[in-house]
Design a protein that fits this description.
Radius of gyration: 25 Å
Helix content: under 10%
Structural class: mainly beta
Number of helices: 1
Strand order of the largest sheet: 11-37-36-35-34-33-32
Shape: globular
Distance between the termini: 36 Å
Strand content: 35-45%
């Protein structure tokens, strides 16, 4: 079984209170910080061994995060904060033995340590303040510390610095040059400040984009815009009223665009017109989270998580629940993170896939009257996550990430299901991706599967790139994968829908976040 995935911190606005939430991410080999008494902090470091000797001596002051007012130690050739227990002080650097020869070698030399006064960053002074090599401002004003878009891993562009002294990569080039299946790529022309939740939907002729973002005053806002098939803007972005929104799902209905929103009220349903006017709204449940929507011709399925369970209801295009919320028959251990739910419409009903801890992926069928059929367990390995369903008529396809072979063989897989959620074909390997964390957005277009494989980042639901794969009806690759976008600052929330004979992909860029898109004609 693989190690637990790292959860990417999302920039949830704090002005919404407890419902807004917050998080943090710690990567292997990084530093984790904890507060100590008296307001000081200590830092522990993983991923490297200390070259200091034993901790000796009398009591000393607590080490601080920046290591500028306490005892220091030399870690792999750089000064860092001491990790000695209270009542001791850092001893002298001790030569380390050579594990191959058994002889004693010299420990790496440490550079001259900064002055011993407390280290304070002064963002805006035009200088990169530094305490020691592992703790400094990335940039300050026009001073970029020798970095550029290219050095950070982008294709090109102009790097700048934010007022917070963090890199601003919005003018860096993420997109590949048009060619092959890639028609165009860039940023969606919406002025969303720090978006963190995104969904897209297509009515066959137009594309709807919905997002949750932080406004200038850090309050959370829900936005919506509409685009033509060539991604020409049809509706300028509008703000949709919602109580402290944190996540959004979108579906295109016959007479409206339907939004399911996780908010301070629970799970809200809103129907809005092509002009962005709210036509109707309803609170479906007071405590649900992470809603998903699957559009239909005259109704839609909304699925959400609630206290470790999965629930579903059939709703109409006036945001009215046609059926009462029903508990889906999944086993115990439903994944707690975003409930890892996915759904698709099949002939005469819906399928819902959920990752269930230690039991792989389970699939339930929901009928148009809201009744949930007994759960079918797909024949995928137990150590499986990130299920994503798509369907075209009775043709249902599931992608998932398989960790059953360990970190040396993990990666995305593909399997066809029947209308009841049972396997209807073999498991197809989409290629080995080390420590693959995240879902594979995909659609069915003219019988082929168009899949976008996120590049490995080591962080859950975040990717360094999106690569386009075109698969035949048997799941075999038809052509060499094509790179669509690269983002070393990590992209996330990737979505894909068909729009006529094209495929539209949207995602949230990193550093600072913007909404990106690509128009594909595979």
């Amino acid at each position: 079984m693989r190690l637990a995935p790292l959860i990417l911190a999302l920039p949830i606005a704090t002005a919404c209170g407890d419902n807004a939430g917050s998080g943090s991410a710690t990567a292997a080999g990084s530093q984790s910080t904890a507060a100590t008494g008296g307001g000081a902090t200590t830092t522990s470091t993983s991923g490297g061994e200390s070259s200091t000797g034993d901790c000796v001596g009398d009591a000393h002051e607590a080490c601080s995060l920046n290591g500028c007012d306490g005892d220091k130690e030399c870690i792999n050739g750089e000064w860092g904060p001491c990790v000695c227990p209270p009542g001791t002080s850092a001893g002298t650097t001790d030569p380390s033995p050579d594990t191959e020869t058994g002889t004693t070698g010299e420990a790496p030399a440490c550079p001259e340590f900064p002055p011993t006064q407390p280290c304070e960053f002064s963002c805006g002074n035009g200088e990169i303040d530094r305490c020691f090599e592992s703790l400094s401002e990335p940039c300050d004003g026009d001073v970029l510390g020798g970095e550029s878009c290219e050095s950070l891993g982008f294709k090109g562009g102009t790097l700048s610095c934010q007022q917070t002294c963090e890199f601003d990569t919005r003018a860096c080039v993420r997109c590949e040059a048009p060619g092959g299946a890639l028609v165009s790529c860039g940023d969606v022309p919406v002025a969303a400040t720090r978006p963190w939740s995104l969904d897209i939907a297509s009515d066959g002729a137009a594309l709807g984009v919905a997002w949750v973002a932080a406004a200038d005053d850090d309050t959370a806002t829900l936005g919506f815009a509409r685009f033509a098939g060539d991604l020409e803007l049809l509706l300028e972005p509008v703000t949709v009223p919602a109580q402290c929104p944190t996540a959004v799902a979108l579906a295109a209905m016959d007479t409206s665009w339907l939004l399911a929103v996780e908010s301070g009220a629970g799970v809200e349903l809103l129907a809005i017109s092509d002009a962005g006017v709210v036509l109707a709204s309803e609170v479906l449940t007071a405590s649900g989270a992470a809603p998903r929507l699957v559009q239909g011709p005259d109704s839609a399925l909304v699925v959400w998580g609630e206290q470790g369970e999965a629930w579903a209801a059939i709703v109409d295009d006036a945001a009215t629940a046609i059926t009462a919320p029903a508990l889906l028959p999944f086993g115990e251990g439903l994944d707690a993170y975003d409930y890892d739910l996915s759904a698709a419409r099949v002939d005469g009903g819906y399928l819902v896939a959920a990752r269930v801890f230690l039991d792989g992926v389970q699939v339930a069928r929901v009928e148009p009257d809201g009744a949930a059929a007994p759960t079918a367990t797909t024949p995928v390995p137990e150590d499986t996550e990130y299920p994503r369903l798509v369907a075209q008529g009775a043709d249902v396809r599931l992608t998932f990430t398989d960790f059953s072979g360990g970190l040396g063989s993990s990666g995305p897989r593909w399997i066809r299901l029947d209308a009841a959620g049972e396997a209807a074909g073999p498991i197809i390997d989409l290629g080995y991706t080390p420590d693959f964390f995240g879902a594979t957005p995909h659609v069915i277009l003219d019988g082929e599967t168009i899949a976008l494989l996120p590049g490995h980042s080591g962080i859950t639901y975040a990717a360094t790139a999106l690569d386009l794969y075109r698969l035949d009806a048997q799941g075999q690759e038809l052509e060499v994968a094509q790179r669509v976008v690269t983002d070393p600052m990590l992209l996330r929330e990737a979505r894909a829908v068909t729009l006529g004979d094209s495929v539209v992909v949207a995602w949230i860029n990193g550093g600072p976040p913007t909404i990106g898109y690509a128009l594909l004609q595979p």
